[in-house]
Sequence to fold (768 residues):
Amino acid sequence: RVVALILLLCVSEMRAETTRYSVPEEAERGFFVTNIAKDLGLTGEELLTRQARLVPEGEKQYFQLNQHTGDLVVREQMDREELCGQSEPCLVRFEVLLENPLQSFRAEVRLTDINDHAPVFLNKEIVLKMPESTMPGTRFLLESAQDPDVGNNSLQHYSISSNEYFLVYTRQRSDGRRYAELVLDRALDREQQAAVAFSITAVDGGTPPRSGTALIRVIVLDINDNIPVFTRSLYKVSVRENSSQDTTVVVVSARDLDSGTNGEIVYSIVQNSEENFETFKINPETGQIRLKKPLDYEEAKTYEIDVQATDGGGLSSHCKVEVQVKDENDNAPEVIITSLTSTLSEASPPNTVVALFNVRDRDSGDNGRTTCELTGEQPFRITLLTTDAYALVTSETLDREQVEEYNVTVRARDQGSPALSASKTLLVRLLDVNDNAPTFTQAIYTMVMSENEPAGRSLGRLSATDPDAGENARVRYALVPTSTGTLAAASFVSVDAESGTVRSLRPLDYEKVPAFEVRVRAADGGSPPLSTQAVLRVVVRDENDNAPVLLHPGPDSSAAGELVPRWAPSGYLVAKVVAVDADAGQNAWLSYELAKATEPGLFRVGLHSGEVRTARAVTERDAPRHRLIVLVRDRGQPSHSATATLAVALVDDFSDAFHQLDQDPSSGRQPQVAEEEMLTTYLIASLGCVSSLFLLSVLVLTANTLCKARVRAELSPPSPSCYADRDFASDGVGVGSTGTLSPAYRCEMYLTSGSGRKEFQFLRPVLP
Fold:
């Protein structure tokens, strides 16, 4: 029963031979047709795995496939006459579609006719008029019975009830239809019997056979010895389909040699089919045949019309008219979608099947030949599967972020003149996959927080976007764990996972942490999630929370002693107050002022340098000891300050330098005993210092002439009143960058050879 020839298909090249089956019409729902799995050489599990399904040629599905067993059964009863009319064979076509890989098998089921219709006469009574002179053997064409069945189930023969005058013969037309001819077997005699009535029965060849009957009434007329004669026994004409109503098809003509009423001819169409009755009409006087309605080539390609000419005496003759319908391109192609995937993943590879469709054109020849194409530039293409069967597949990779959905228009065009076309638009939506990582709006985010700012303050907000959709576009933020050495920086701030808001976790000290960086991550909600990173740089804004710190004179000394010769001119450098401030910017800008002095007019302090100089020349009237209080103030708001105390002694030479420094200018007591006891100690110390300084001076002068740079590198640390070229540092804190120290001073020492007491002469600054 089954002849199946299966060929594996791929989307680019698909060929298949048709597998044929047969099913009786009117088969009940669930009627077993065949086992597709066996015919294809597959198992039921393979059918299920490969998602086997049926794709009908038309819009209606008459069969159903069980994917578990492979059985093909009837889904809905089918009436062969309703589907195909008189056409034979009556075929219902469909395709079996398999996926992974894509395969297509074309099959057709032939509906075998059952005898479910009996022959029917359009007129239940047929009236014939015959002259009594009609010769035995004369034949009369009778109205045909209609039976929509085909083959043996169609009308097979006619019979009449028993009578004395007539016989019936069954004849067959060129198209296979059978009609009845009534033959006069015995001469009529109107005087004996003016009318003859009998029944005619049409019988089909079904099992059991079905039949239909009609009554024939023959009226016997008086003698009319000439019958009408047609000029032609067969008329062949062609008419274009869609010709308008009342279009003339042909004019038939007959002559009768009789005169008078017996020579008057009336034309009529013998109603041998309901189709002819509904389509054609004839002028009974002229014999002109016209259309009752437009012709449709797709419904009927040819018509056979039997025309009867009857004279006034009741004699008649017949001719045949064959009408050929010429096809016109009056049917646009039809695009019939048989399978559609309306949602498609954007990760689908090229050649993914989106839809299956057929193109049908009811015209014939070039008018029925079609081509198929897509309109516009889109990532799809059409692949021919079999004749008039196509697949819409992807031609390249898809990206939902660029285009979320496509309106794919399939246009079918025939080759008629003018060509007709039809379009079908398919909506294909793309499903998102997580193929895009979030993107920060900035590679580096810089935020500022104040020093000592309490925890919980918002510093700013991170922002990242993800072009994906749904959970794939939901961005969450987090700090990136780093190496052990930078864990402390990550504990300074927190990032809100949802909003990206950055908040401080604890107060920070600018002097310890002026700035820090952490890495932040933005991850989406896809599976697996994608992420990206950015740098978060937090700058701590300095607050004025540190007072200036004195480097010279030292903060642990009550007062620093300085020697000033009596001959010192105005502007003589007495000392330099050196201070630093751990703050930054304006908070670390220091200014110096003389807050208090024994004699305010004698000394002045550089506002920015901190240098204490004589405001005028020293005179003999000036007090030998002075106490200066220098105020160091920063420019912060509010400002902080510190004070340095200097003890200045005005001396004539070095012999009384230490004596002067030992006296407190604010004290009026001068203990003579203490002075005498310390005099010897001072002299010994002075001699030692003179000797050491002399040797040191010789070495310095010698080395300076050889290599200045090396001398600077090898010089011993400066004394409190002498500063090196390098930046001053204390306890590892750099002060060179604060801008509070003026250029360094280098001092040279000289010994006098003429001093009998071997005392030091005063130092003078030598600018480098």
